[in-house]
Design goal:
6% helix; single chain; 37 strands
Amino acid sequence: GKVRLDYLRGKNALEGTIFRLRNTLMGDVVNSQVVYSGKPTTTIRSSTYSTFATSINSLNSGKGRTPVVFVGANDGMLHAFAAATGKELFAYIPSWMGPKLSALTEPSYVNNHQSYVDGSPVVAEALVSQSPDVWKTVLVAGTGAGGRGVFALDVTDPDAFSANKVMWEFTQADDKDMGYVVGRPQILKLRTNARNLSPAEYRWFAVVASGVNNYTDDGAGNFSDTGAPALFLMALDKAAGSAWSSTGSAPNYYKIMLPVNNTLKATMAPGLVNFSAALGTGGEVAQIYAGDLHGNLWKLDFELAVNGTVDWIMKDRLSPMNGSNPSPLYVAQDAVSPNPNRQPITMAPSLIQGDTRDSTYVAFGTGKYLEAADKNSTKTQSIYTVFDDGTAKADSTDSNRLSLITGRDRLVASVTDTTTKLVTAPAFKWGRPKTAADTTQRSGWYFDLPNFGERQISNAASVGDYLVFNSLIPGASGSANTCTASGGSNVEYIFNVDKGGTSTVPKLSNTLTGEPLVMDLEGATTYSSQDNTGRRIKTIVKQTLRNSADGLEPTSKISISVIAGRLSWRQINNYQDLK
């Protein structure tokens, strides 16, 4: 046991004899994204937070906190590396990895690869105690297909990390509806008291989608397939060593269950992977948008929770209703007639402010790549942008409707021009048509991905009025337990959200990529001449990058224009009188 532990910690004395010979000490990084932590954020407005931020910036003799990158790996560990040098500062092994670690030493492991810490972390500053206020920099992560659980670490000072900086763990033993967390958690602030009470009370949570396969397993091969998609809100001020509880006078976690179609579940696995939050003026959650594996796009409106946490349920509170049933904003289905196929949603929706305060354009793509059957799926997937007008009104009174926006017949279809190769859509006015024949307004647009097996599983990047998507076209693959994929490809799309078309010709790349990266080209910024009010037009050029196994590859440039200089002016003729 001792020498096995030494091997896992990096000693290689027995490699090639009784233990597996490694090419590198660190395990492979497959689905875990890298997250950076440096200076504390400046977006939080609080006198106690400013004191905390000052203390962080005074670390290391005034040089500030050591910048760190965190990533999970399939050696059972979350790794923390100094960003400047690559030196490992610490590694953390979640408790549910324990029973799986010995497999890493087996010579046969190379043909029996497993997932370990294969989920993406998130790092943010949060208030973890009140009276007095205590702020910390917190990391939250799941383990992807490595196990059903999520953990929180205090990474305020990564140079001084120790066992007592583990804040908590939450697994299926704490709640049976916790699944394999394959999406990215978020650290969010929510209002917890009734809207008619003053002052407002807030609490910070790790918000986590339940993931996939969230059913009960008794350990003897007996499964109870009762799990429904859920959104967990786990308090970051949970007392160390205290039990998890969602009931009683002082719950430390909440669970928002999403409806599930049991008939559909028999042939199509349910699940909730990612979500996006829209924030209010105080940085608190106003709405959460989430797409599930049955193609439902849900809107959870926390501003409607007038009674505080007791309203954190779908029925009658967070969601609009269709009779006695919560209603999604939209249900993604393909055009197969008469029985269209549901299109699963695994990416986090992109949220773009609409023309009015309460309206939002919600953009997302469909498709999944989670199980063996997904590799050869030939069903058509799509990219959508749908219009949330800020109301709970449906565009149809039909009691059999699936969602507030009835379906594709309320949207504009974008198609590829055979000559220019650009994706275009007819001009339309945003709104909620009452009938499919009402073309004076449309509830959004969609585009069917044209390539065989193409789907959208990674998040998009937002650049002004544009969204950058990198689709996935899987290649052939070998055994489910080996890393023998023969490659794949992707297409970069840059869609104008308002118009439903691409601003550049879609670009095919013979490599696998994820979420696109976007950077400013500082030297390319230009200004127009001033007008008679002192205003100028500033043109900012953005460069998109593919992040793939072949490295970073520049792809497209996007130009956006904003007003600079003096934005407005007025002449005061009676200044002396007013003075």
